Amino acid sequence: MSQDLEQAFVKQLRENQNIIHKICRLYTNGEDAHKDLFQEITIQLWKAYPKFRGESKFSTWAYRVALNTAITLYRKSTRMVQTSSTDVSNYFIRQEDYNYEEEEQIKLMYQAVHQLNDIEKALVFMYLEDKDYEEISQTLGITEVNARVKMNRIKTKLKKILNP
């Protein structure tokens, strides 16, 4: 892989790694599982990067790869992440520390979101990231109308979970 492609990937990943952290937070319980999933998503992004054509924003593409990786691993291992044995030591990207104490105030929300199905989690995540319904629909492969309807149903579901 060319040096330019590698540098472009590292730059994009650094700028968008919070996306990956948030997806890891949604699909894991605990710091070790979070780190394992972060690593696996990074590996999958790296493997797929040569095929990234730039037809969408890098962040949209990264969402899709990260969500697909998280959902696939979540379903396969029932919350126990298996990691790939690909050697990425030459392409090390420093992972920023993720402070769980900082997010204590949203712990209840995450617990409620954990009760949602995979698509609902992804939709909530993107909605909370202020993505418009067009980008949400493109990333999840559903129509804009379907994304809006699902989001309204999810809001109702979350209200019932948080205020029984």
UniProtKB/TrEMBL annotation:
<comment type="similarity">
    <text>Belongs to the sigma-70 factor family. ECF subfamily.</text>
</comment>
<dbReference type="GO" id="GO:0003677">
    <property type="term" value="F:DNA binding"/>
</dbReference>
<keyword id="KW-0804">Transcription</keyword>
<dbReference type="InterPro" id="IPR014284">
    <property type="entry name" value="RNA_pol_sigma-70_dom"/>
</dbReference>
<keyword id="KW-0805">Transcription regulation</keyword>
<feature type="domain" description="RNA polymerase sigma factor 70 region 4 type 2">
    <location>
        <begin position="109"/>
        <end position="158"/>
    </location>
</feature>
<dbReference type="InterPro" id="IPR013249">
    <property type="entry name" value="RNA_pol_sigma70_r4_t2"/>
</dbReference>
<keyword id="KW-0731">Sigma factor</keyword>
<dbReference type="InterPro" id="IPR013324">
    <property type="entry name" value="RNA_pol_sigma_r3/r4-like"/>
</dbReference>
<protein>
    <submittedName>
        <fullName>RNA polymerase sigma-70 factor, ECF subfamily</fullName>
    </submittedName>
</protein>
<feature type="domain" description="RNA polymerase sigma-70 region 2">
    <location>
        <begin position="14"/>
        <end position="79"/>
    </location>
</feature>
<dbReference type="InterPro" id="IPR013325">
    <property type="entry name" value="RNA_pol_sigma_r2"/>
</dbReference>
<dbReference type="GO" id="GO:0006352">
    <property type="term" value="P:DNA-templated transcription initiation"/>
</dbReference>
<dbReference type="Pfam" id="PF08281">
    <property type="entry name" value="Sigma70_r4_2"/>
</dbReference>
<dbReference type="InterPro" id="IPR007627">
    <property type="entry name" value="RNA_pol_sigma70_r2"/>
</dbReference>
<dbReference type="InterPro" id="IPR036388">
    <property type="entry name" value="WH-like_DNA-bd_sf"/>
</dbReference>
<dbReference type="InterPro" id="IPR039425">
    <property type="entry name" value="RNA_pol_sigma-70-like"/>
</dbReference>
<dbReference type="Pfam" id="PF04542">
    <property type="entry name" value="Sigma70_r2"/>
</dbReference>
<dbReference type="GO" id="GO:0016987">
    <property type="term" value="F:sigma factor activity"/>
</dbReference>
